[in-house]
Amino acid sequence: MNPFTYSSATAVEDAVRDNASHEGAAYIGGGTNLLDLMKENVARPTHLVGLNKLPLTSIEPTPEGGLRLGALATNADTAWNEEVKRRYPLLNQAILAGASPQLRNMATNGGNLLQRTRCYYFYDTATPCNKREPGSGCGAIGGFNRIHAILGASEQCIATHPSDMCIALAALAATVRVSGPRGERTIPFEDFHRLPGTTPERDNNLEPGELITGLDLPAKGFEKNFSYLKLRDRNSYAFALVSVAAALELDGDTIKDARLALGGVAHKPWRDQEAENLLKGQPATPETFARAAAKVVESAVGQGSNNFKIELARRAIVRALKQAAEGSQHASDVFLNSNP
Amino acid sequence: MIQQSSTSAAAAGGVAAPPPTGTVRLTINGQQHTLQIAPWTTLLDALREYVHLTGTKKGCDHGQCGACTVLVNGKRINSCLSLAVMHEDHDITTIEGLGSQENLHPLQQAFIDHDAFQCGYCTPGQICSAQGLLNEGRAHTEEEIKEHMSGNLCRCGAYAGILNAVKEVVDSQLRMKN
Ligand code: FES
Ligand code: FES
């Protein structure tokens, strides 16, 4: 790690001010991704603003009937929170599908959104990477790209966003609350993360110095019919090759409302509202699910070693929607080789 | 707050500055320790290199193996992915604080009884992680214990024994509760 100074903030305004007054500063919450990147020399902050003493760990109802998740509540405390379990079991399942108990005890909700891609070229400073070193090229295009994007990629970058939690947050249409040098604002989850385009170095739409303070979940939690289906190389403690967050609101056999978001396939959590519209008002049948799945992968492009993801994603969507419709609760732990 | 001392690179005529150290107070296994360390010292390195508690192991140093697992306020974490300076007000428990040669922790005894290790390198992390699992109280079945212990890898592949050892202690705690 490169040398840096450290200070610990006790109020949001102090953290923002301290960050702004140090060139090359970064915020540190749980640190599980940032310290890893610093050890690899991918991140080289010269000053760290410690956030762990900020009063942002609570999980509380919002006036609108939803739930506010403090940015510094850990992933574990969030997943096991009684209200989250009862009202947003999709979020509970998605969080528990990610990382390990130790990491979930450290990682914070804000940090989960800001974790960076696990693209091996991004991590390897001996190789080109437009995300790490703008203009240097992309090692993954034409290289080993088994874990890379099939949707929304660009000629500069085919990295994927690694989070599980964020896929559920996308499906639930959460809102991100931020505080920065220019005050507070909210960002709809859809608009928080970015596609790579020509600026893959930017993962999200935070302005310099902005700090995530919380996540608001809307009242609607799809607690009856949901599934988080995660497909990976081993049964636990691995990143998704493809994951699907599916949520349905049913009226008898008819789909009243639907949410569909994918992980492991794009530079951002990939929610597809066109596919959701194909589900709404339709009977909850395999044919309906297949139409929505076909819509999602319609524009998918393989890069060589990840071509398999297109068919995998199509089948995973159908399966997750079926699980959601059936109301089966434990969808997250399945083997990659089990049949859809 | 740790600040770089004013006798920095510029004052030294462009020569690299000595590491800026600061005072960090840690409570480890019930004992207070005052360390002079640089802010980039991980909790793992602080434990091993400065407090000389070498029971906690460095496997990958990247949060991928669990060998460095310790308990912070009763919760298991990877000490390799955390800075010592982030834990000033916390209660840290390492394998040295769980049991001793004369007075083995039930998990230590169970690991011996079930042949739950070969080289032993992952064992302190496994045991601290299992203690975290017990504190959480959410894993009861074999399937649950496997999933909740998935953050700890064992290169020797002693998983079957580890599972049996943890299951035994989980079962005996459940019996005691009922
Ligand atoms: S040494 Fe910390 S997880 Fe491997
Ligand atoms: S006993 Fe050797 S690594 Fe687990």
From TrEMBL, chain A:
Keyword annotations: FAD, Flavoprotein, Oxidoreductase
Composition skew (Basic and acidic residues), residue ranges: 187-205
Record-annotated FAD-binding PCMH-type domain positions: 1-222
Enzyme class: oxidoreductase
InterPro entries: CO_DH_flav_C, CO_DH_flav_C_dom_sf, Diverse_Substr_Oxidored, FAD-bd_PCMH, FAD-bd_PCMH-like_sf, FAD-bd_PCMH_sub1, FAD-bd_PCMH_sub2, Mopterin_DH_FAD-bd
Pfam family, one: FAD_binding_5
Gene Ontology MF terms in the entry: FAD binding; xanthine dehydrogenase activity
EC number assigned by the record: 1.17.1.4
Positions of region (Disordered): 187-209
Record PANTHER family: OXIDOREDUCTASE, XANTHINE DEHYDROGENASE SUBUNIT C-RELATED
Protein name (Swiss-Prot/TrEMBL): Xanthine dehydrogenase YagS FAD-binding subunit
UniProtKB/TrEMBL annotation, chain B:
Keywords: 2Fe-2S, Iron, Iron-sulfur, Metal-binding, Oxidoreductase
Database matches in Gene3D superfamilies: 3.10.20.30, [2Fe-2S]-binding domain (1.10.150.120)
Origin superkingdom: Bacteria
Gene Ontology MF, one: oxidoreductase activity, acting on the aldehyde or oxo group of donors
Domain 2Fe-2S ferredoxin-type: from-to ranges: 22-98
CDD domains for the chain: fer2
Record PANTHER family: OXIDOREDUCTASE WITH IRON-SULFUR SUBUNIT, OXIDOREDUCTASE, IRON-SULPHUR BINDING SUBUNIT-RELATED-RELATED
Name of the molecule in the record: Xanthine dehydrogenase YagT iron-sulfur-binding subunit
Annotated source species: Hymenobacter luteus
